[in-house]
Amino acid sequence: MSEGVLIPDLIPSAYVVKRAARIGAEIRNINLSGDLPDDTIAAIQHLLLQHKVIFFRGQGHLDDAGQEQFAIRLGRLSPHPTMNITKGTTSIIELNSVHGGSRADFWHTDITFVEAYPKILVLRGVVIPPFGGDTIWSNTTTAYLDLPGALQRLADELWAVHSNAYDYAVMPRASEADKKHFDEIYTRTIFETEHPVVRVHPETGERALVLGDLVRRFVGIPKHDGQRLFDIFQSHITAPENTVRWSWKQGDVAIWDNRATQHYAVNDYGNEHRVVRRASIDGEVPVSVDGRCSVTRVQKSTQPTADVN
User: Fold this and answer.
1) CA atoms within 13 A on the CB side of 248
2) Of 51, 73, 154, 177, whose CA is between 20 and 30 Å from 17?
3) Active-site residue, 38 included
4) What are the structural domains, with CATH classification, of the chain?
5) Interval 131-170: pLDDT, tens
6) Is 80 among the catalytic positions?
7) Among residues 22, 263, 274, 277, which one is catalytic?
């Protein structure tokens, strides 16, 4: 088959079409639902580990409940630690372009400011603008392999502090509505968590870089030197040949391994309307190459405490 690879033993009658050499595949002829056979779910999980992000067109039959019914087949649903959950769901958050804080146009791995950040995300296109609004994913395992040996060894030893205490410098186009959202909702509880810069993937054994724009500093490294190190490592993650870009249609679903990727929502659709909804699956606490685990050092509420009379 010139267009794709048929794998009848795993996903009958479906084609797996690579979207880029290092990351991304489109899975065709499957309707995602909570009653898919176990071997089909196993095949989807296998393809996810292999391709890091997988795409499904034509899933317009899914509503919020259907999205969660499917997502729970991949693991335990995980609510966002600070953002509001869509009514009637366990984990779904809505990213609606007319609301503040919904245009995630910076490179990140989701929710790395907590210890056990989600391992899998399931994103559904609900309202897609007539132009723009693509999402780009990068492969953080091949980025690690691209590093020269000396830089790999350095990365293996480094730890970084991730936080949701928002740094507007990484999002210079933030509107006043964005800032209000970040101040009142996204950062209503502040987290600071130390992660290894290199984590060992619990299922594949691959080494993946854990960075992105939620990093605030490296442990034990002066800020100026740390920024230079960050730029070196991050440039390997976001190198164009290490990425895949998805042009959304209404009803599309993207599923990614949040332990081995970063992503960026391209903010090029002006005032057009864009709505996507995301379900999250509980993850594991990252483990470094020398066996140490991530740890949250700061967790504090920024909301005023009610007076007690």
Assistant:
1) 28
2) 73
3) no
4) 9-301 (3.60.130.10)
5) 999 999 999 999 999 999 999 999 999 999 999 986 655 5
6) no
7) 263
